[in-house]
Amino acid sequence: MVILDKNKTVSQLTILYILVVVAFSFLNLKSYPVLEFLLGSIRIPIIIVMYFIASKIKSTLYFSALILFFFAYLFFREGSLIANFLGALISLVYRLLIFIIVYKSIENKNWIAIFLASIPFFFIYLYVLLLIEKEIKIDFYPWVLNGFLTSFIGGMATFNFLFQDKKRLHWLFISAILFVVQIGVFLINKYYFPDEILRMLTIILFGISNFTFYKFVLLQEELKLKYTS
Q: pLDDT tens digits, residue range 1-16?
């Protein structure tokens, strides 16, 4: 009964998360700053609560990553030069934690193959960075390092997805691809060409990538419990 209640609660929170992401992406809330702040800020806390309820392991690493991402959003929302720099630094640490989670989760750690699989991601990311180089100012180097980590996450996900037919790797592969696209769209919209469509796309990609990675973490934990029980 307890398990059924937990599953029901997680399902309800999942629906709430989807509704929040859709509302925040499609509604123009500039005239309602409080509501805009609420919808934007509540997305990560919803995932944190979902994970707390659904997980039997409750990884400190993953909790820390989500909390860091929440604070990165707050700094980026503030928008000043220093706030953007702090947001980029926090985002870099967040990405490092995600990298560690993925590295600890995958079975194939062939670094030559992973490096080769990472190259397409890094070239896409490098193109975006060169596009916004004159606009990005003091947070340029944190974003370069962020790009390396994101590219390697994509490489690890792609290599393992191609050579292992496992459900959890499907979720990882989807989230890794979306991480790369999301961060590229975010940077272009924030520093190079602010546009409402790009803003909407960033929010949608953010919502899907974080949800798919959450699903990957849960499935990976189920696998770990299976082998340790």
A: 555 688 899 999 999 9
